Amino acid sequence: MPTPTDFLDQGQHALASAEWDTARESFERALEQQPSPEAHDGLGLALWWLNDIRASHHQRTLAFQQFKKSGDTKRAAMIAMWLAREQVFLSGNVNAMKGWFARAERLLADEPRGVEHAWFQLLRASLLASPQDLENIAQETLGDAHAFHEDDLETMALAFSGIARVTLGHVEQGMADLDEAMTAALGGGVNLTTVSETFCLLLSACDIAGDLGRTEQWCRTAREYAEQNHFPFLAATCRETYGGLLTALGRWNDAEQELSEAIRAFEQGHYALRVQAVIKLADLRVWQGRLEEAEALLAGLEDLGASTLPMARLAYTRGDYTSARAILTQALDSANGLTLDQAPLLRLLVDVSLATNDIDAATLRVAQLEELANASNSEVLRANADLARGQILRAQRNADAAHYFSSALYRLNAFDQSLLAARARFEMAQLTRDNDRAAALTWARAALASFERLGAKQDAARVSEFLRSIGAPPRAVTRSTADLTIREREVLNLLAHGLSNREIAERLVVSPKTVEHHVTQILSKLGARSRAEAAAFAARMDL
What we know:
Blueprint: H1 4-16, H2 20-33, H3 37-49, H4 53-70, H5 73-91, H6 94-108, H7 115-128, H8 131-148, H9 151-167, H10 171-186, H11 192-209, H12 212-229, H13 232-249, H14 252-267, H15 271-288, H16 291-298, H17 308-317, H18 321-333, H19 343-355, H20 359-376, H21 379-395, H22 401-411, H23 419-431, H24 437-454, H25 457-469, H26 486-496, H27 501-508, H28 512-526, H29 531-541
Helix pairs in contact: 1-2, 1-3, 2-3, 3-4, 4-5, 5-6, 5-7, 6-7, 7-8, 8-9, 9-10, 9-11, 10-11, 11-12, 11-13, 12-13, 13-14, 13-15, 14-15, 15-16, 15-17, 16-17, 17-18, 17-19, 18-19, 19-20, 19-21, 20-21, 21-22, 21-23, 22-23, 23-24, 24-25, 26-28, 26-29, 27-28
């Protein structure tokens, strides 16, 4: 008959092999026979991987208490550090996080310096230190990792050094650290928690750096790894990151699916991480013009730093430039120095400043944006900076604006159907409006094609109005019935057959007022200006 030790060994082997259900069963059977801190600890880890987060915390807390009581202060301290970080990921409870770190520090105070002290220094810095301090501590920890021959510690120190450097704008150095950390993580010899967290830090760094190509590549790799090893946490994080990437590219239907899946995955466990996905979904809703939904998603999250961008974008889109400016400047002015993660805030603040004809403020912010973009080596961020500089020059009626718009499009060669590229084309259309109508027409129609394809209805409406203003109605554009309800499809079909609202009402046994409402919705969703245009579209689609 297997002994408690046998079950503990089986559980540890299962954890190392990503066999989470087997690990849980083994540790539970060990506890049935003989309760021990090792069994509680192993069960807590297995439950964490199975996304039963609160039960996981309960088991690891029991392990902490029992290790502490038995005098194994080092193992108790390591669990306390883990629980400290989990307080933030679970519920954003910073005070609880600080409390657990304090308990770990107290336990280690009388111990001779060892690897646990190095872990404490690094993990606390990962949540509480500035990017510059985190970089310094991570580099110091690398020396400890080599001295103690700790591969996991070395990998995590490299990963934290990498994201700190990327945030500071030292992208080449930071990505080199992260590449080395990822090589170590995937090369074996480190535990699966280290692999998962290294992936997450790398994806976050790619997101901050605006490296869309690298983000997509690593998201694909991480998702494959997560599926092979049953990593629900990593899979959800990948979806969240990838959803942000797809939003930036204008692939909004795909972005919505990824972010919604991430939210569902985090619902059972880490609330704070779920909130990050919700905030990204809110930003997507603003881009889509679904402003009431965005506002509802952001309600109660206004105090979180991650909500700054979508809240400001929501105000800007509604024409409330005073609020948008206040939100952005407050976030930028309260920061300790200029960091790369502020680039999207600067970019939006340029738009806000231009909307209020504050050229001096726009010029100041675009200079900061250019500084960050040049440090990042990201073609997408540089394209953003070029576009912003061109907008300022166009507002000043400076012909050099064309150079910056062209530069932005050149940098976006790999993303020529993105929302950003479409914006650059529309800027060129507006720039050439007065002296080269043919060029303006060509640029505007190209922009319109992109906006329509991406579903950017507000931008498409602006281009359509521009085309009408120069005496050239917008060309027929590709539309889709994907947004129509079943009833709206029925109404459109009857409308295409020439039926009046009253005749449609009689056919569907509803009131003419209801049909009028459906027709209004159909015209809005299809971007059609008349019943005849909607009917022509329906005929082409053979509805």
